[in-house]
Amino acid sequence: MNLIRRILCLSSLPLLLATARAQTPPAAIIPTVITSTKMEMWSTDTETRSVFQQNVVVTGNNIKITCDNLDVTATRLDDPKNKGATVGTLEKFKTLVATGNVHIVQGDREVTCGRAEVFPAEDRVVLTEKPVVIDSSGPYVATGTRIVLLRGERRLFGDNIKLQGPPIRDLGFDKNKPVQAPAPLPRLPKT
């Protein structure tokens, strides 16, 4: 009888583990936090604009951006209570434009440039002013006049790109080995 109980307990273990996994709460949503020395914000009925200056740091969901200046446009919730508010309830970021000594770290990618335009709704980042993208998974280093990164696709494209990657093994010949004559060409049948 004791053996039967043990077998039943062990056989129900996968079901218990699956149930526990199903009840695990989703990862916490990390809010975007922006700090700077100076900031100015104003709103219209449809969007809120913020300009951050000096020592700007943005932290959020697996991303950190540092720069000299940041111009943020966010859409506002379409709510009658927001109409007269100086700063309305923000719905989502429309654009983030970072300028001056821009440094972005996200996962195994690191970016430096003079200007970065982030379009969250389009999952796109446009880098200009001497952009350098370092992807340590390769390792790869890309430079160009304009580089576009697409979120979730690990895709990069742009203008005047130079890509530096890992070395390709030497496909040449051994200088210390004597050169062998090439094999004779097969004779083609006469027609």
Unreliable stretches = 1-22
Following the backbone from N to C, one meets helices and strands in this order, namely: HEEEEEEEEEEEE
Residue share in helices?
10-25%
CATH fold title of the domain at 33-164: lipopolysaccharide transport protein A fold
Please tally the helical runs, counting DSSP H or I stretches of 4 or more residues: 1
Question: Which descriptors apply to this entry?
Answer:
Organic solvent tolerance-like N-terminal domain-containing protein, disordered N terminus, signal, mainly beta, 191 residues
Lay out the secondary structure.
Blueprint lengths: L1 H21 L10 E3 L2 E6 L3 E14 L2 E14 L13 E17 L2 E11 L4 E5 L3 E4 L4 E4 L2 E5 L4 E5 L2 E3 L27
Antiparallel strand pairs: 1-3, 2-3, 3-4, 4-5, 5-6, 6-7, 6-8, 7-10, 8-9, 9-12, 10-11
Describe the structure.
It contains 1 helix and 12 strands; from the N terminus they run αββββββββββββ. With 191 residues, the chain is mainly β. Strands 1, 2, 3, 4, 5, 6, 7, 8, 9, 10, 11 and 12 form a 12-stranded antiparallel sheet that branches. A hairpin with a 4-residue loop joins strand 8 and strand 9. The protein starts with a helix and ends in a 27-residue tail after the last strand. The model is unreliable at 1-22 (pLDDT under 50).
